[in-house]
Write a structure and sequence with these properties.
Shape: globular
CATH superfamily: 5'-nuclease
Number of helices: 7
CATH class: Alpha Beta
Order of helices and strands: EHHEHHEHHEH
Number of strands: 4
CATH architecture: 3-Layer(aba) Sandwich
Radius of gyration: 15 Å
Length: 137
């Protein structure tokens, strides 16, 4: 199986107010053959999400270090697409589905790699359904 995951999906593994048993089941279902993809900005986005949780008192620094280590164990494949053609695809998807470029980067990766997408974001879920990209949940 090939899957693309966004930060909303991954955050449901560890953030106290976002925890999801359904997301944990998906992660448990990833076997050695699974290719789990994230766009390069996922790492910065996830760091921002963790930092915000620390600032808001939802996580402690030690929790953040532990979470980073746990996420690294999943061996995500980081996709580093960029350039004029990539930018054009992102702009096209953003306009076509009414999503922002960050959301469109996940959709673009799922379309390009013919992957299922894991997201809890409502707009991105709707874009997936309209574009024919299969959702993990």
């Amino acid at each position: 199986m090939t899957a693309v995951l966004d930060c909303t999906f991954c955050a449901a593994l560890f953030l106290p107010h976002e925890r999801s048993a359904r997301v944990k089941e998906v992660f448990r279902g990833f076997d050695e053959a699974a290719e789990v993809l994230v766009p390069v900005q996922w790492w910065t986005e996830m760091t921002e999400l963790i930092w915000t949780a620390i600032v808001r008192g939802r996580l402690k620094h030690a929790d953040a270090v532990e979470i980073s280590g746990l996420l690294e164990q999943y061996r995500f494949v980081t996709e580093t697409a960029f350039g004029a053609a990539y930018t054009e695809r992102i702009i096209d998807l953003s306009g076509l589905y009414g999503i922002n470029p960050l959301e469109a980067s996940y959709l673009e990766l799922a379309v390009r790699k013919q992957a299922r997408l894991g997201t809890l974001d409502g707009k991105l879920r709707a874009a997936c359904q309209k574009s024919g990209v299969e959702l993990l949940l």
